[in-house]
């Protein structure tokens, strides 16, 4: 029988068989799951050399030279790294030591000079690891702390990698934006140590909805906001990791926070507004009733050096000016007077002011408005598109202000803006995050791509000349974010690779438009390696795709479910999977795994699109519930990927009889490419 005849019979069989089932052939492997440290240091050091060899962990201790708080922070973080990654304690002393100090110690300074790694750059450090021990010599105490963050990344199960590093930050101010809401503790307690390891030195803290005393008394405090005690706790926590807290309290525009519960509506700029957005700058009670009390409480709570007042997109929604007295004054004077009033109030408490650039430096006012503002303002210029340069930074500097660049999420926006900030002498960069005022948990599950951008920002703000992480490895920023936010031990787990070949419904290569998604050889998965393959931290046996039924015509003739007869115990199951097509409905339930046990019980693992599974053509990780897997390209250059859902078995002592993949036959159809049993 010819190939065409076989395909006709296969199609007919699938049409007649709504479900597939087959016993699993298993291949034992020692590294079914092997979590190992990355060999890429992030942020990339200015100068780094590596040689073969490691400093053994046996009899290795920690020695601090000096009493600066940053040295105790370094010890804390290194001990935590040892405990998390190796499940061991790092001793306070040993036959060989990790010695941490600064060039203020003449002996350490002499050692750094002898090693050819001495630096006097602020926040810089020298680091070397060899058979004689490990040394971190900071140009100052903060530099020693950053050196410890790099040393953490040299840790392996066998020891510390030999290295010679001379390093310092390219940008002075390196800011990451975080949020305060009712979920703050669970999120910020993970983010803050992570941001320190990425060598940020400040956090911009969205604080609009903190439950200020004045807001509680006036009935306009939001139930979803963080308490003042939580705000103070986060500020203290940030400082203990070397991150200066900068509250962001949006003023002039974006001020829905002051109108909660229908309060303060007499202070609205535009009385006709259905969703009040800006306040009336000519009503004295705007300041005496709301703004000054809030700013005073913010200063007492955060004890900041600066407060960011926003002042962006002022005329984007409401009419401004809207009231007749405001029209008589004009927008420019209203903006300037408000900025000066708030700036002067903060200055009376020895606190500096930051504003966004867009309203003050708009084309219509740039020739006159900036000249009227206090020159000790810091102006942060946000532009969320990648560009070869950002001349606005020089415009801000030439007007007499301190300039910060501000990036967000578009590919390479962070990297190109950081390079421009260095070239144009800006004071630093802010990596913003816009996940909603009450959406803190989404940084892990929902808008995780914005967490990934923290990694890109840390790399580029420290070293703007560094190669973009996407060019080093397309999944590097994603895997690093997942690893730093939820670190796991470095360990190797044995398991078994499941042979899915008897259940395969689509070939990965599509040479004749009868495989993969029926689009031909230029847009298929032929680039995915087959056989016994390492994908990220996992190993799989890959032979083809168990693609199930979907709403698309090219998937309408496929089975609705496929069952693997496993008959094995497992600590966890790793599913390498994807969908053939996308769905316009985020979090849509497109299928499920049903895990049936020998005792008759069953557990269902839902497959929500964007959370547990996503299309092979969709690269943006909205959730970290699914781990990054394989990244590649089709023959026509389309970037594609597969993810790994690591399912932890709540009943590891029970035999798993079967694993069944079931499709809901939606636009996005579940497709299993690999299955691995981890542990037993």
From TrEMBL:
Entries under InterPro entries matching the protein: Beta_hexosaminidase_sua/sub, GH, Glyco_hydro_20_cat, Hex-like_dom2, HEX_bac_N
Catalyzed reaction equations: Hydrolysis of terminal non-reducing N-acetyl-D-hexosamine residues in N-acetyl-beta-D-hexosaminides
EC number: 3.2.1.52
Record bears the keyword Secreted: no
Family matches, as Pfam families: Glyco_hydro_20, Glyco_hydro_20b
GO terms classed as biological process: carbohydrate metabolic process; glycosaminoglycan metabolic process
Protein known as: beta-N-acetylhexosaminidase
């Amino acid at each position: 029988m010819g190939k065409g005849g076989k395909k006709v019979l296969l199609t007919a069989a699938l049409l007649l068989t709504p479900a597939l089932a087959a016993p699993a052939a298993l291949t034992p492997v020692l590294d079914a799951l092997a979590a190992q440290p990355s060999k890429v240091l992030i942020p990339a050091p200015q100068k780094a050399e590596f040689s073969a060899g490691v400093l053994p962990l046996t009899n290795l201790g920690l020695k601090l030279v000096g009493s600066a708080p940053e040295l105790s922070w370094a010890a804390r973080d290194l001990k935590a790294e040892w405990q998390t990654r190796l499940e061991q304690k790092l001793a306070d002393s040993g036959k060989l030591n990790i010695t941490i100090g600064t060039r203020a110690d003449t002996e350490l300074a002499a050692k750094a000079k002898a090693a050819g790694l001495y630096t006097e750059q602020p926040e810089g450090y020298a680091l070397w690891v060899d058979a004689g021990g490990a040394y971190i010599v900071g140009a100052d105490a903060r530099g020693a702390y950053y050196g410890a963050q790099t040393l953490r990344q040299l840790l392996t199960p066998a020891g510390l990698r030999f290295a010679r590093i001379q390093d310092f930050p390219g940008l002075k101010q390196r800011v990451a934006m975080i949020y305060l809401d009712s979920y703050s503790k669970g999120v910020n307690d993970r983010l803050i140590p992570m941001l320190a390891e990425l060598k940020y030195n400040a956090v911009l803290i969205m604080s609009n909805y903190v439950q200020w005393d004045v807001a509680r008394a006036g009935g306009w405090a939001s139930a979803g906001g963080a308490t003042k005690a939580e705000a103070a706790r986060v500020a203290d926590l940030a400082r203990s990791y070397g991150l200066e807290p900068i509250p962001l309290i949006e003023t002039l525009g974006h001020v829905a926070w002051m109108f909660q519960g229908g309060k303060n509506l007499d202070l609205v700029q535009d009385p006709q507004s259905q969703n009040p957005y800006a306040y009336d700058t000519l009503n004295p009670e705007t300041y005496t009733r709301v703004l000054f009390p809030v700013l005073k409480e913010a200063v007492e709570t955060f004890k900041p050096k600066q407060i960011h007042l926003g002042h962006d997109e002022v005329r984007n929604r409401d009419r401004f000016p809207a009231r007749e007295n405001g029209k008589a004054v004009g927008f420019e004077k209203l903006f300037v007077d408000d900025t000066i009033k708030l700036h002067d109030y903060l200055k009376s408490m020895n606190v500096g002011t930051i504003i966004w650039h867009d309203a003050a430096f708009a084309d219509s006012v740039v020739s006159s408005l900036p000249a009227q503002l206090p020159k000790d303002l810091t102006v942060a210029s946000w532009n969320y598109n990648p560009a070869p340069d950002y001349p606005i930074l020089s415009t801000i500097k030439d007007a007499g202000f301190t300039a910060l660049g501000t990036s967000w999420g578009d590919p390479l926006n962070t990297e190109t803006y950081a390079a421009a900030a260095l070239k144009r002498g800006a004071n630093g960069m802010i990596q913003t995050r816009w996940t909603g005022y009450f959406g803190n948990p989404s940084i892990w599950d929902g808008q995780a791509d914005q967490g990934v951008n923290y990694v890109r920002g840390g790399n580029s703000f420290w070293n703007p000349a560094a190669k973009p992480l996407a060019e080093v490895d397309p999944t590097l920023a994603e895997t690093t974010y997942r690893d730093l936010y939820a670190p796991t031990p470095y360990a190797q787990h044995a398991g078994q690779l499941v042979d899915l070949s008897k259940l395969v419904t689509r070939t990965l290569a599509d040479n004749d438009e009868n495989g993969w998604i029926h689009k031909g050889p230029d847009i298929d998965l032929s680039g995915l390696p087959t056989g016994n393959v390492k994908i990220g931290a996992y190993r799989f046996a890959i032979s083809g795709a168990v693609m199930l039924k979907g709403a698309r015509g090219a998937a309408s003739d496929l089975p609705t479910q496929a069952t693997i007869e496993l008959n094995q115990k497992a600590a966890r199951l790793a599913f390498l999977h994807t969908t053939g097509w996308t769905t316009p409905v985020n979090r849509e339930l497109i299928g499920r795994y049903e895990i049936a046990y020998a005792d008759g019980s069953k557990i269902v693992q839902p497959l929500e699109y964007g959370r547990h599974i996503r299309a092979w053509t969709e690269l943006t990780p909205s959730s970290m519930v699914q781990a990054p897997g394989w990244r590649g390209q089709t023959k026509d250059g389309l970037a594609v990927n597969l993810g790994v859902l690591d399912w932890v078995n709540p009943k590891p002592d029970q035999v798993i009889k079967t694993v069944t993949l079931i499709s809901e036959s939606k636009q996005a159809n579940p497709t299993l490419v690999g299955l691995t049993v981890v542990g037993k």
